[in-house]
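Email to the structure team, subject: MFS transporter model.

Hi all, the expression group asked for a predicted structure before they design truncation constructs. Nothing fancy, just the tokens so they can compare against earlier work. One-line instruction: predict MFS transporter, return tokens.
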Amino acid sequence: MPSPYRALFAVPGARGFTVAGLLGRMPLSMMGIGVVTMISQVTGRYGLAGALSATMALSAAALGPQISRLVDRHGQRRVLRPATLCALTASTGLLLTTRLDGPDWLLFLCSAGIGCVPSVGAMTRARWALVYRGRPELHTAYAFESVVDEICFVFGPIISIGLSTVWFPEAGPSLAACFLAAGVFWLTSQRATEPPPHPRGHHTGGSALRSAGLQVLVATFVATGAIFGAVDVVTVAFADEEGHKGAASLVLAVYAAGSCAAGAVFGLLSFAGAPARRWALGICAMAVSMIPLLLVGNLPFLAVALFVAGLSIAPTMITTMALVELHVPRAKLTEGMTWVSTGLAVGVALGSSVSGWVIDTAGARAGYGVPVAAGAVAVAVGFLGYRRLSRPVPQREGAHEQGSEQEERHLA
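Reply from the structure team: attached below.
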């Protein structure tokens, strides 16, 4: 590992919360695609599979920011454990309903309950922000977190789809639930690196989403999430049409590998220009990289096209988190980061649902038109809101300075 990354772990406890965060984030890439694989195998209905995946994403979009807001006020341990128990109960219900051939309405109810799953990535990034706030190492830490995200997306689909197709349909989502339980309960047991809660008085001004800059980021990432959701569902269907459904996990892993490689390199670089400009370029690159998918004729070509498309993902996500810090008050940082994930979740829901309908109607190849259209929307929204992002809001310390001093004493 390059020395700038190795130096991050000089802080006591960093290795522990990183590994726990990796485990807790595995369901991010395993559960949705696992449910799509499970339902399509059991029922053969890609429309239903995409709708259930969309329901999970929409529920997470509605509940995630509220859970993170509670975390900012009460701490990670007090909030994450009960939220995770709720998500685990719902996932158990979904698997049992599928196994026992239960009604569709119960599948949707259980899928909605899985939305209680906390944003583990936001929790680990908040810990890095506590350690390295205001220092160059924070850029490297965010890059490392993006690499961890992509590691999950490299191995998560392989494990989930592989288990569900080779062993039994419910195997992938079942293991995802186990990873969630292990990761969250291990993370919340590490109290030394947990950001201290901010008193209620630090949360004036309402939700973090009132920030104009954050609104632009979230709106753009709704369209970006539609790209991700559509690519996942359409790739599974395309591989199925080609007679190699199990290969979908490998193709999606190549997609994530491109992002992982780009994120690792991006974290080693230093930038002097405005982050908003880099962010806009990243959004444009993601949109343009979707166009070759319309020309795919076989799985090897699809894998190459998705690897190239993945190169723009992690750098854009890293820059996004830097912009969140510039536009959101410190006391609402976890909530602000979760709103970005929420935008992605809403987009994943839309992309999964629309692409599932297109696949059932016109076939998998036509489904790749969905991420192309979503990329165009992302570019349009990004450019319309660019002026807001290019004018960061001065950090409103005032009432927060006391909280900052408490954080420093807590870390010491």
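The chain has one domain: 13-411. The chain is about 75% helix and 0% strand. Ping us if the truncation boundaries need rechecking.
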